From TrEMBL:
Record protein name field: ABC transporter ATP-binding protein
SUPFAM superfamilies per record: P-loop containing nucleoside triphosphate hydrolases
Topology term for the membrane: Peripheral membrane protein
SMART domains: AAA
Gene Ontology biological process: response to antibiotic
Organism annotation: Actinoplanes auranticolor
Subcellular location: Cell membrane
InterPro entries according to UniProt: AAA+_ATPase, ABC_transporter-like_ATP-bd, ABC_transporter-like_CS, ABC_transporter_ATP-binding, P-loop_NTPase
Stretches assigned to the ABC transporter domain: 14-244
Transmembrane segments: none
């Protein structure tokens, strides 16, 4: 099932202009312009090393670009970081968390850092832990969580302050199918309520199922973008993806020694 386009407003939730980033003179992102419509469920696809994490990190103010601009709901991420960051929730790559805390403590820390009322934090964090099946009274430290549980607590931290835009780096990676279905459901409801989600993924089925819009990245540039239907053009997303990124097919003679 694809999600219908929801209440798209004319101002993009996220606007990237001319983003460029190199590491040791090697371009990782080579000039990206992208508008993510407000109310959309936006999937960023690309092979390993395409520049997805680098792009999203620059988009949310975690990594300074060599050139270019990122605006979140009209606020420049680098010129007006407080206003921009107040409006987003981010699940970064690798989810670096203060992990010597329980889930409840970590959420309290995030909520209070954002200036939220302690009672609201308590009530929302209990609800998030419950909905994400992490257990509101779980005394396990986050450092001892499984990879999938860490993803889920990272997502809870990103959602706690009810941001208008969620930017999620591979939210479904390492997550079991039951939890993935749960996360899909939560995100679909969030978008139905007017929120915007941008996420990177390698899982075509998830992107096909959830996204209203898709962009395919390769070698630090956007190769294709549009609504899901436009990008697919009546084919499977996987076929389009492989064609766009120039997939290599095995001849059968490789690894003969194996
Ligand atoms: N901190 C860094 N230092 C040096 N090179 C980096 C750094 N971060 C990313 N790169 C390089 O930039 C390129 C893009 O990496 P990036 O992590 O953005 O890709 P990605 O599309 O997210 O890949 P994946 O799907 O494997 O997570 C790669 O060639 C990577 O090696």
């Amino acid at each position: 099932m694809t999600v219908p386009h929801q209440r798209l407003s004319p101002d993009p939730a996220l606007a990237l202009r001319g983003l460029v980033k190199s590491f040791d003179a090697k371009p990782a992102v080579a000039g990206i312009d992208l508008d993510v419509p407000a109310g959309s469920f936006f999937g960023l696809l690309g092979p390993n090393g395409a520049g997805k994490t680098t792009t999203l990190s620059m988009a949310v103010g975690l990594l300074r670009p060599d050139a270019g601009q990122a605006r979140i709901l009209g606020y420049d991420v680098w010129a007006d970081p407080a206003a921009a960051k107040a409006r987003i929730g981010v699940l970064p790559d690798g989810v670096r968390l203060f992990d010597r805390l329980t889930g409840t403590e970590l959420l309290a820390y995030h909520g209070l850092l954002r200036g939220m009322d302690a009672e609201v934090v308590d009530q929302r964090s209990a609800e998030l832990l419950d909905v994400l099946a992490l257990g509101a009274d779980n005394r396990t430290l986050v450092v001892d969580y499984s990879a999938g549980m860490k993803k889920k607590i990272g997502l809870a931290c990103a959602m706690l302050h009810a941001p208008r835009l969620l930017v999620l780096d591979e939210p479904f990676e390492a997550v079991d199918p039951v939890s993935a279905a749960l996360i899909r459901d939560i995100l679909q409801r969030y978008v139905s309520g007017g929120g915007t989600v941008v996420f990177s993924s390698h899982v075509m089925a998830v992107v096909e199922r959830l996204c209203s819009h898709v962009a395919i990245l390769a070698d630090g540039t956007i190769r294709m973008r549009g609504t899901l239907a436009e990008v697919r053009g009546g084919r499977s997303l996987e076929d389009v993806f492989v064609e766009v990124v120039g997939g290599r097919t095995a001849t059968g003679s490789e690894l003969a020694w194996l």
